[in-house]
Design brief:
Conserved hypothetical protein from pyrococcus furiosus pfu- 392566-001, ParB domain; 13 helices; alpha/beta; five-stranded mixed β-sheet
Length: 292
C-alpha cells in the first residue's frame, strides 16, 4: 500500500481547520450562523457509539431552560449542513421541536478533516469513553495511513497515551463493553490484555469491577491468576518481520490482529465487535489490498 505524503502535508491538511482560542468568529473559516434544524444532516462518522438516554434527557432539560450555550459545529454539504460535532445538542434540539438553532460553520472540504475535527472536539469535551476514543484513533490512522507518533502530534496527546488507548481494543468484546459502560476503569482493564483466554479475561474483569480494584491491584490479580493456570502460556514473541506484518494488517483492516506462530506456520486471529466491522474486514480482504 502506498502511503500518503505527510511531512508538510499534515500542516497543509489542518492549517485552517484547527483554529486557536483567539480566532475571530467572523473569519470565513469559522463563523456563527442560524440554520433550520431540518437542514442539518447527522455526522456519518460520529465517533460516539452510544448516547445515554438519561444524559440526553438532562441535556434537553438544560437546553429548554437555558438554550444551547455552545453551538454545534457543521460544514456545508450541498444545500444542507453536516454535523462535525454536537450530536447530543442537535438531537436535543430536534426532540424539543426547535425550528432553528445557531451553529458554528467551518470551512472543511474533506471527510478526513471532518473526521479528525469531530474526534478532537469530542476528546476536548471528554465526550468519548476510552473504547470510543480508541476506535476513533484507529479510524484516523487507517484513513490517513499514519503512525501513532503522527497521530499523537495531530490530537495533542503523548504517543504512550495513544498506544495505551489502542491496546484496549485487543480486549475481548464483553470486556470492552464493560469499559464503555463505565463498569471497568481503562487502567484496570489494561491489566487484562495479557490474559489470552476470553472467558478468563471476562471473569477477572467482573472481579476487578465488583471489588473496585485499582490498576496496580488488577495487575497483581492477573499475575497471580496466570501463575496458577497450568494451561496458560505467555504469548510467544514475534519476529520483527512478522510483527511488522501484523501491524500493517491491523492498519489495513482497522481492527485488532493477533498472530501465533512463525513465518512458516501459525494462526491469525482478526477481532471484530459489530456486523459492520465484520463486513468492512470482509470487503478489505476481498479487495485484495496489499499489506506489504
Amino acid at each position: 500500500m502506498h502511503r500518503k505524503a505527510l511531512g508538510k502535508g499534515l500542516d497543509a491538511l489542518f492549517k485552517s481547520e484547527f483554529p486557536d482560542q483567539n480566532i475571530d468568529e467572523k473569519s470565513p473559516s469559522r463563523r456563527i450562523i442560524t440554520v433550520s434544524v431540518n437542514d442539518i444532516l447527522p455526522n456519518p462518522e460520529q465517533p460516539r457509539d452510544t448516547i445515554s438516554g438519561e444524559s440526553l434527557e438532562e441535556l434537553k432539560q438544560s437546553i429548554a431552560e437555558n438554550g444551547i450555550l455552545e453551538p454545534p459545529v457543521v460544514r456545508r454539504k450541498g444545500e444542507f449542513f453536516e454535523l462535525i460535532a454536537g450530536e447530543r445538542r442537535f438531537r436535543a434540539a430536534k426532540d424539543l421541536k426547535f425550528e432553528t438553532i445557531e451553529v458554528i460553520l467551518m470551512d472543511v472540504d474533506s471527510d478526513e478533516k471532518m473526521l479528525i475535527l469531530s474526534i478532537i472536539e469530542n476528546i476536548q469535551r471528554e465526550d468519548l469513553n476510552a473504547i470510543e476514543e480508541g476506535r476513533a484513533y484507529r479510524q484516523i490512522m487507517k484513513r490517513m495511513e499514519i503512525t501513532q507518533e503522527e497521530l499523537a502530534d495531530i490530537v495533542g496527546k503523548n504517543r504512550s497515551t495513544i498506544a495505551n488507548t489502542l491496546r484496549l481494543l485487543t480486549l475481548a468484546a464483553k470486556v470492552q463493553k464493560m469499559v464503555s459502560d463505565g463498569q471497568l476503569a481503562p487502567g484496570s482493564a489494561r491489566a487484562l490484555i495479557t490474559v489470552q483466554d476470553d472467558d478468563l479475561q471476562f471473569s477477572l474483569a467482573h472481579k476487578i469491577a465488583s471489588e473496585g480494584l485499582s490498576a496496580r491491584k488488577a495487575e497483581q490479580l492477573v499475575k497471580k491468576t496466570l501463575s496458577h493456570e497450568p494451561h496458560v502460556s505467555s504469548p510467544s514473541v514475534l519476529s520483527p518481520a512478522l510483527d511488522s506484518f501484523r501491524e500493517n494488517l491491523q492498519r489495513v483492516l482497522g481492527t485488532s490482529v493477533k498472530i501465533k506462530g512463525n513465518e512458516s506456520k501459525g494462526k491469525i486471529e482478526i477481532a471484530y465487535s459489530s456486523k459492520d466491522e465484520l463486513e468492512h474486514i470482509f470487503e478489505s480482504i476481498k479487495d485484495g489490498t496489499s499489506i506489504n
